[in-house]
C-alpha cells in the first residue's frame, strides 16, 4: 500500500511531512506549559492564604490590643467589675407612694432589680434584640455573618444589626460620642471587647438588669422602672405583655417610636415585638392575634422636678439636705434673720445639712442627684392631695375670681388704691423693682442693653404663656403687663402636722410651683395678726390669770415704750363698755382686752414665751406685739400651735423618718424632738379658750359652713388693710396652719368681707379637714376628744365648764392689728 508506505517513510530520522512535524512541536510545547501552570497557581493561592491568615492574625492582634487597653479606650478592670451607676434619689410618702425624685438633666434613673421586672419584658427584649443572648459570650458570630452578607454585600438595610445586648450595654456604659471617621471606626471593635469582658464578669441576668436600668426611654424616663412609671403609671413587675412589648419596641429608636407623639407607629412596632415573641415561643399564636389587635393605651405621667405632688415640700427638703454650715459673710444684709434660722437649724436639726454631716464610708459626700438614695418622708400622699385640692378649690374657684373682679379697671392694680397706705411714687418704685427681678431684665442687663432699650422691650407686646387655674394659656401682652398680671394672684401657705411626733402630713407653699416658686410655708414670713393672741393668753395663764378674769371692754389709751400714746382699734362692737372675761375676749379676738392684758404684763416676757413656742423670728419687745405685727412663717406657727394639741409639748416638724442607700441600707433615722412650753395648769385653761373660739367665736365657720363636729381649737388672724389672712386649727391628732395674702403687703382686698382670716384662710382648713375625715383609710375620727382631767379647775374661784359658759359672741366680728404699728 503505497500510501501507507509513504506515510511511514523517514529521511534521516526526520519526518518528511511538515504538517505532522509542526503538530508534534505544538503538542510538546503544550505539555510543557501544562506542567508550569499549576505551580504558578499554587503560588497565588499560597499568597492569598498568607494574606488571609495575616488579616485574621492582624484582627486578632488588633482586638487583643484593644482588649488589653493598648489601643483605644478600655475601662479599668475595677470599673468593669463595678460600673459607675448614677441613679436618681427617690422620695417616698409615709403611705408608701413615690412622690418625687432628685435628678439632674436626663438622670431620672431609678434602680430596678431583676426580680422587680416583669418576665414579659425579658422575653420581649431577648426575642427582639438578641435571640441568641443565652448562647454567645458577648459577640454573636452568626449575627455578624448575617450583617456582612445581607447588609454589606447584598445591601439589604432591613436585615437587622449584629449588636448583642451586651454590646449595646457596653455602648451605654462606656462609649463616648464619636467624632470623626477614625473614632467611629474604632468604636464598634472597642464595644465588642468591652462586651466580652462584661460577659466574663457578669451573669446573663446581671447584664439584662444593667441594660434595662441604663436605657433612656425619653421624657426623663431612664431605666425600666422610670419608663414603666412614666408611660403606664405602674411598677415594672406589673407590666402586661403588650406594655412590655411597647417599651421594648422603643429600644430600636425611642425618638422615632415615641408612644406619646407617634401612637400608631409605635403600636405597629409593638406588634413586631409581639410577633418576635411568638416566633421564639414566648407567646402563642392566639395571644399574638389578640394582643396585636389592642390599641396602644398609655397612662402618661411626665416626670419633672416641678411636677407631681408636694413640689414645695420637695424643694424645701432638697435645700435642707444640701445646706452648708452657715457663714455670716455668705448672707446679704437683709438676710440676717435667715442666717439666724439656718444657724439654729444647723445645730439642732440633723436633717439640715445632712450631706455635709453624713459622709460616705470612704469619706466622700453623697450626691442626691446620682447616688440613688431612698428618702422616706413624713408626707401622706392622700392628705397632700386633699390639701392641694383645698387650696385650688378655694383660691382658684372662689377667692381669686373675687379679687380679679375687685381690681378690674382699677388704675394701679393689683396694688391698693388707698394713697394713705401706698403713694403713687412708692407704687411705681415697687413696679420697677418687680420688673428688675425678672429673668428678662437680668438677661438684658447682662447683654449690655441700655435703660431705654429695656424699657422699650418691657412695653412691647409679645406672645407668651401665662398661668390660670384652668391651665396655662397662650396670649399676647407686654412683659410689664405680665409682671402685673402675675402679681394679681393671691399666694398661700398651708401645712398640716401630727402634733404628737412632728410628722408633716401636708405642705402647700403656694398656688402653683411652676409659676410661683417662692415657698410661703418655710421661707416666706408675714404678719400674724391675732393668731399671736394665744401666746399672750398662755403667758397670762402662767402668770396666774384665769379664763374668768374680767376686764373693761373699752378702748384703752396707753403709753407705749417710746412715750407715744397708743389707742388700738377694735373691729367688733359687741359688749362695748361691759366687763368681759378673758374667755370671751379671746373667743371674739378682742383687741382692747389684749392691749389691757399686755399692759399689766411684760412685753419682753411675751417675746421669751413666743420663742419658747418655737418662733425664731426677731420679735420687738413692745406692747403692740400682742396684736401680731411680727413676721412669722407658717411652719413656725404650726410648730408653736402643736403645743396646744399635745398637752403643752411643742414638737419640731419632721420632714423625713429615714434615708437609705441605693441598696436599701438605712444610713440615717430621725426621731421627734419635743419641748415643754406650757405647764399643766395653764395648758387646760388656754385649751378651753381655744376650743371656744371654734365653738362660739371668730372660727365658728368651721362648724356652720363645713359641718365639722370634731373637737377642735383654733384662731383666726387678720392684719392691717386685710393684707394677711390666717387660720390656725388643731385637733387631738392634727395641727394645721394656713395663710393667704398678696405677693406684697400692698396687694389685698379692700374690704373684710373677703379680706379677713375667716374668709381668706379658714375655708382652706375647712375643706382639707372635711376631706380628711371623709377618707376612712386615714383613720382620723371626729369623735377624738381632748382629755380634760375630772378635777381640773379652770378658774380660781369657781369652775366654768368650757362648754357651759354663755357668751354673746359676734360671730361675724374679726380682728385687726392696730394702724401704723411700726410708725
From TrEMBL:
GO terms for cellular component: outer membrane-bounded periplasmic space; plasma membrane. It comes from the Bacteria. Residues 98-278 form the Glycosyl transferase family domain. Coiled coil: none annotated. Keywords: Carboxypeptidase, Cell membrane, Cell shape, Cell wall biogenesis/degradation, Glycosyltransferase, Hydrolase, Membrane, Multifunctional enzyme, Peptidoglycan synthesis, Protease, Transferase, Transmembrane, Transmembrane helix. Signal peptide: none annotated. Residues 493-733 form the Penicillin-binding protein transpeptidase domain. It is found in: Cell membrane. Residues 1-39 are annotated as: Disordered. The keyword Lyase does not apply. It catalyses: [GlcNAc-(1->4)-Mur2Ac(oyl-L-Ala-gamma-D-Glu-L-Lys-D-Ala-D-Ala)](n)-di-trans,octa-cis-undecaprenyl diphosphate + beta-D-GlcNAc-(1->4)-Mur2Ac(oyl-L-Ala-gamma-D-Glu-L-Lys-D-Ala-D-Ala)-di-trans,octa-cis-undecaprenyl diphosphate = [GlcNAc-(1->4)-Mur2Ac(oyl-L-Ala-gamma-D-Glu-L-Lys-D-Ala-D-Ala)](n+1)-di-trans,octa-cis-undecaprenyl diphosphate + di-trans,octa-cis-undecaprenyl diphosphate + H(+); Preferential cleavage: (Ac)2-L-Lys-D-Ala-|-D-Ala. Also transpeptidation of peptidyl-alanyl moieties that are N-acyl substituents of D-alanine. In the C-terminal section; belongs to the transpeptidase family. In the N-terminal section; belongs to the glycosyltransferase 51 family. This is Penicillin-binding protein. It comes from Duncaniella dubosii.
Amino acid at each position: 500500500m503505497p500510501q501507507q508506505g509513504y506515510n511511514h517513510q523517514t529521511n534521516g530520522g526526520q519526518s518528511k511531512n511538515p504538517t505532522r512535524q509542526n503538530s508534534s512541536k505544538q503538542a510538546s510545547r503544550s505539555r510543557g506549559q501544562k506542567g508550569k501552570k499549576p505551580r504558578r497557581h499554587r503560588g497565588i493561592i499560597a499568597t492569598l492564604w498568607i494574606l488571609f491568615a495575616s488579616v485574621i492574625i492582624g484582627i486578632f492582634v488588633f482586638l487583643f490590643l484593644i482588649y488589653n487597653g493598648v489601643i483605644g479606650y478600655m475601662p479599668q478592670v475595677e470599673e468593669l467589675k463595678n460600673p459607675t451607676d448614677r441613679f436618681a434619689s427617690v422620695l417616698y410618702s409615709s403611705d408608701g407612694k413615690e412622690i418625687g425624685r432628685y435628678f439632674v438633666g436626663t438622670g431620672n434613673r431609678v434602680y430596678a432589680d431583676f426580680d422587680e421586672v416583669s418576665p414579659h419584658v425579658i422575653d420581649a427584649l431577648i426575642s427582639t434584640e438578641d435571640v441568641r443572648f443565652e448562647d454567645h459570650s458577648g459577640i454573636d458570630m452568626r449575627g455578624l455573618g448575617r450583617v456582612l452578607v445581607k447588609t454589606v454585600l447584598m445591601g439589604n438595610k432591613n436585615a437587622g444589626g449584629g449588636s448583642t445586648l451586651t454590646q449595646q450595654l457596653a455602648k451605654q456604659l462606656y462609649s463616648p460620642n464619636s467624632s470623626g471617621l477614625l473614632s467611629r471606626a474604632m468604636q464598634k471593635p472597642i464595644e465588642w471587647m468591652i462586651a466580652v469582658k462584661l460577659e466574663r464578669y457578669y451573669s446573663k441576668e446581671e447584664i439584662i438588669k444593667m441594660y434595662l436600668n441604663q436605657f433612656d426611654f425619653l421624657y426623663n424616663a431612664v431605666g425600666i422602672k422610670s419608663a414603666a412609671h412614666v408611660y403606664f403609671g405602674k411598677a415594672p413587675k406589673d407590666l402586661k405583655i403588650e406594655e412590655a412589648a411597647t417599651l421594648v419596641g422603643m429600644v430600636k429608636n425611642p425618638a422615632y417610636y415615641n408612644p406619646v407623639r407617634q401612637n400608631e407607629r409605635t403600636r405597629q412596632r409593638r406588634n413586631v415585638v409581639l410577633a418576635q415573641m411568638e416566633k421564639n415561643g414566648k407567646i402563642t399564636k392566639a395571644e399574638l392575634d389578640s394582643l396585636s389587635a389592642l390599641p396602644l393605651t398609655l397612662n402618661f405621667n411626665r416626670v419633672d422636678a416641678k411636677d407631681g405632688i408636694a413640689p414645695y415640700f420637695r424643694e424645701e427638703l432638697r435645700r435642707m439636705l444640701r445646706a452648708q454650715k452657715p457663714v455670716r459673710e455668705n448672707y446679704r444684709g437683709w438676710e440676717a434673720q435667715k442666717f439666724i434660722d439656718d444657724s439654729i437649724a444647723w445645730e439642732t436639726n440633723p436633717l439640715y445639712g445632712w450631706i455635709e454631716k453624713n459622709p460616705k464610708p470612704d469619706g466622700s459626700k453623697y450626691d442626691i442627684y446620682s447616688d440613688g438614695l431612698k428618702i422616706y418622708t413624713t408626707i401622706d400622699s392622700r392628705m397632700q392631695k386633699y390639701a392641694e385640692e383645698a387650696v385650688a378649690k378655694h383660691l382658684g374657684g372662689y377667692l381669686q375670681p373675687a379679687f380679679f373682679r375687685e381690681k378690674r379697671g382699677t388704675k394701679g392694680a393689683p396694688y391698693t388704691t388707698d394713697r394713705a397706705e401706698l403713694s403713687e411714687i412708692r407704687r411705681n418704685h415697687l413696679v420697677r423693682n418687680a420688673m428688675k427681678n425678672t429673668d428678662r431684665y437680668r438677661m438684658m442687663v447682662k447683654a449690655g442693653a441700655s435703660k431705654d432699650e429695656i424699657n422699650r422691650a418691657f412695653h412691647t407686646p409679645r406672645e407668651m404663656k401665662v398661668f390660670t387655674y384652668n391651665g396655662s394659656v397662650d396670649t399676647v401682652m407686654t412683659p410689664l403687663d405680665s409682671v402685673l398680671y402675675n402679681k394679681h394672684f393671691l399666694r398661700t401657705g398651708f401645712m398640716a402636722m401630727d402634733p404628737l411626733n412632728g410628722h408633716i402630713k401636708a405642705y402647700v407653699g403656694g398656688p402653683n410651683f411652676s409659676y410661683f416658686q417662692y415657698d410661703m410655708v418655710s421661707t416666706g414670713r408675714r404678719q400674724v395678726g391675732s393668731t399671736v393672741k394665744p401666746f399672750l393668753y398662755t403667758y397670762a395663764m402662767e402668770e396666774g390669770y384665769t379664763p374668768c378674769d374680767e376686764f373693761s371692754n373699752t378702748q384703752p389709751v396707753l403709753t407705749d415704750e417710746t412715750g407715744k400714746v397708743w389707742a388700738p382699734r377694735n373691729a367688733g362692737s359687741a359688749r362695748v363698755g361691759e366687763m368681759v372675761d378673758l374667755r370671751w375676749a379671746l373667743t371674739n379676738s378682742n383687741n382692747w382686752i389684749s392691749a389691757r392684758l399686755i399692759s399689766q404684763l411684760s412685753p419682753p416676757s411675751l417675746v421669751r414665751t413666743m420663742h419658747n413656742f418655737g418662733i425664731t423670728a426677731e420679735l420687738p419687745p413692745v406692747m403692740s406685739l400682742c396684736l401680731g405685727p411680727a413676721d412669722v412663717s407658717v411652719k413656725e406657727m404650726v410648730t408653736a400651735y402643736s403645743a396646744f394639741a399635745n398637752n403643752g409639748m411643742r414638737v419640731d416638724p419632721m420632714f423625713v423618718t429615714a434615708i437609705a442607700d441605693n441598696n436599701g441600707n438605712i444610713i440615717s433615722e430621725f426621731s421627734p424632738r419635743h419641748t415643754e412650753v406650757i405647764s399643766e395648769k395653764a395648758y387646760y385653761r388656754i385649751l378651753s379658750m381655744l376650743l371656744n373660739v371654734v365653738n362660739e367665736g371668730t372660727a365658728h365657720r368651721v362648724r356652720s359652713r363645713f359641718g365639722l363636729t370634731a373637737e377642735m381649737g383654733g384662731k383666726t388672724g387678720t392684719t392691717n388693710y386685710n393684707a394677711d389672712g390666717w387660720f390656725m386649727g388643731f385637733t387631738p391628732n392634727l395641727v394645721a396652719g394656713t395663710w393667704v395674702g398678696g405677693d406684697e403687703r400692698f396687694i389685698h382686698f379692700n374690704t373684710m368681707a373677703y379680706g379677713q382670716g375667716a374668709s381668706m384662710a379658714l375655708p382652706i382648713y375647712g375643706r382639707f379637714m372635711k376631706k380628711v375625715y371623709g377618707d376612712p383609710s386615714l383613720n382620723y375620727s371626729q369623735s377624738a376628744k381632748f382629755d380634760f382631767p375630772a378635777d381640773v379647775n379652770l378658774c380660781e374661784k369657781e369652775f366654768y365648764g368650757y362648754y357651759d359658759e354663755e357668751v354673746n359672741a359676734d360671730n361675724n366680728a374679726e380682728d385687726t392689728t392696730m394702724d401704723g404699728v411700726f410708725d
